[in-house]
């Protein structure tokens, strides 16, 4: 589906390059370049994820600045990259599943909604929401086990090396110590079986599926709104030149303007998504990282136990611990992801001879 910021044929039409559908992509280029680009993005944003995770499991609120300084003083730069190797190992297959499901769903649902008579704007929003939902569910099959291990590595030993106060001790993190990600997978499988690696899978789906659906739908709507504002501004600025064209010309944005609009829309969509799904993300993180005790033995916490503990520690506001880092992480990740993703799609587009053959 091609994107236009105007629904009429007036001079306010904005000429934006058409969307690149799944059948137009060279799949080998798409996955190869995608793995490299998104691995770089993950490395850049990983320290923020570590901050968010630690804030979510601490029983009291700790500012991002105070926690950052504590990690740097006691653990150095390596403290910000605990579990990164494990996370990176899962990023490539998870992103491959994510991008495949995203593009196939977006293309098929978009075509179907247009055939049903929906307007281009409505069809795009529905297609993006459906694509976000399906891609998140597909990626979680790979990402949940990676998440469980990498998050445990993130908070391992942070009672000893972070804020020195009894109030800030993690209540009951996993007592087992992991040497690395592979050791973590092995010990979790030995202790709890495959269910241990998929701890929190249900709440992960409930967190990421609606989060992605909301994000992609919000991004689609924001994209059109922002381009509409840009078009109005450009037409008022060049009103005389436009009138001289007799209504037959339009506005063609530069590549820098397109990247800027994509970044603004991604940040707006991230804010909406983070606010809606933050409590679920906090519950998910605690389910995957913390244990309870039963007859002297460590047992996985239930959703209700986790919610009760959070409310007891700080009321409903405790569910929003780590909101700042998560919002920043989502905004930066989404901005780099969407701009990188659009660049990746154009980099992976088949040549015209391949498309017509």
Question: What is the class in the CATH system?
Answer: Mainly Alpha
For CATH, the homologous superfamily is named as Mitochondrial carrier domain
CATH fold title: Mitochondrial carrier fold
Give the helix/strand class.
Answer: mainly alpha
Shape summary: globular
Number of strands: 2
What is the terminal-to-terminal distance? 21 Å
Largest sheet: 2 strands, antiparallel
- Counting DSSP H or I runs of 4 or more residues, the number of helices is 13
Order of helices and strands: HHHHHHHHHHEEHHH
Please indicate the count of domains: 1
Low-confidence region ranges: 1-12
What's the architecture, going by CATH? Alpha/alpha barrel
Name the strands of the widest sheet in spatial order: 1-2
Subcellular location: Membrane
Membrane topology: Multi-pass membrane protein
Solcar repeats: 27-108, 123-225, 257-347
Family: Belongs to the mitochondrial carrier (TC 2.A.29) family.
Fold and architecture overview:
This protein has helices spanning 27-57, 64-75, 84-115, 120-155, 158-161, 181-192, 194-197, 201-237, 239-244, 255-289, 303-314, 323-347, 352-356, and strands at residues 291-294, 297-300. By secondary structure, the chain is an all-alpha fold. The protein has one domain: Mitochondrial carrier domain (Mitochondrial carrier fold). It has a two-stranded antiparallel ribbon. A hairpin with a 2-residue loop joins strand 1 and strand 2. The longest helix has 37 residues, at 201-237. This is Mitochondrial carrier protein. Solcar repeats lie at residues 27-108, 123-225, 257-347. Belongs to the mitochondrial carrier (TC 2.A.29) family. The chain crosses the membrane at residues 30-51.
